[in-house]
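Need the bound structure for EPZ, inputs here:
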Amino acid sequence: MSEYIIKGGKKIEGEVDISGSKNASLPIIAACVLNGGKSTLYNVPKIHDTEMMFEILKRLGGSVEKKKNKVIIDTSKIEKYEIPEELMRQMRSSVILVGGFLGRYRKAVFSYPGGCDIGARPIELHLKVFEKLGININKNYGNIECFCDKIMGEKIDLDCPSVGATENAILASCLAEGTTIINNAAREPEIVDLQNFLNKMGAKIKGAGTSHIEIEGVKQLKDVSYNIIPDRIETGTFLCLAAINRTNLIVKNSKAEHITPVIDKLEEMGCKLKIEKNQIEINSPKKLKTVDIKTMPYPGFPTDMQSVFATMLTTVKGTSVIVENIFESRYKYTQELVRMGAKITTEGKTAIIKGVRKLYGTTVKATDLRGGAALVVAGTAAKGITKVENIEYILRGYEDFSKKLEKIGVDIELKGN
Ligand code: EPZ
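Answer from helper R.:
Posting the output first, comments after.
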């Protein structure tokens, strides 16, 4: 396993370029199955998770051609619709391919993706969506077979605004007969990006970004080229990195409107943010004020920002309270922060943070993608050297992370294979 060696306390300043959104890229790559032709995607981040999706498409007969700033995906030769188990296990979000295969082939075979580092991550809402659309589901042990002759548009009421279940409902119903309505849909910007991509392909979808989405089935979808939105969680990660280091930073290729709750909380703490069309400049004062955070489905405070934001709060004088309402075990990183001198206690959904003057470098282990990013942010501000192990978790979702950090002054070295 590889590791980062970070020497804390360096002067951090300058500009950072945000990459394309991981969580918009994954469903859009899955949607490329639907046109049985070519899709040219710009701004896809070069990260482990997108590479895994490309690997699955290639295993099933698709082609993926990477050029300088674009990826050309051709799914015309894909005949199989079975997601390889070992790849499914490595990346649970590949379950999003099921909607694409059902939309195009009316068939999909996959294994239960299983839980991950932040919770059980069940998929019963996805299966309920498929059943509602008239798809037969056979479960034999770890394997699930979905099949039907045709998909009929239907009204779907989601029990909870699941991002993945909303995306799978959209993918499976684009080429259905009739219209599908999704109530209580997730409202994330990544779902709006998926709608915009599919409508460019010739789909007829409206309402993404609201709780009510309508998909009018069409017969065929065409070749397309598309530019993916910036990653709002990477944007928030660098804003918090500036705040914990009490410094100024310009975050380019970013859309502040996609992370309004994070911006509002940083301003409540005393940070000054200058927001332009595609960039955010943050100025962090020496003295920051505590705030309380409750993670909620979009447009609430994003759960993916919880760990990095909490880390930034560990050196703010006073007491901050975090409530994690989305995932049941998303506080593992706090034990690692306590080893760096943070004062954090967790009880169920709640974390209580008592600000300390300083964090101290030591050896810590990444436990998941966003928890790992939080440890790196902590290391940049800690006194001494922080070794972050198991950084493969971080490489899943942050493109060129150590290069971007070096460019703004962080003393970081990537060690290992
Ligand atoms: C997406 O995961 C994101 N991943 C997650 O980002 C993000 O944290 C999450 O949405 C919430 O915003 C991608 O887009 C690839 P959900 P997803 O279905 O779709 C429960 C990151 O760090 N649930 O909205 O899996 C579930 O357990 C990742 O980039 C069910 O109970 O999230 C969770 O508690 C982490 N049954 C809640 O709903 C289901 O069938 C929200 O999950 C599905 C979900």
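Comments: The chain has a mean pLDDT of 96. The chain has two domains: 3-19+231-415, 22-227.
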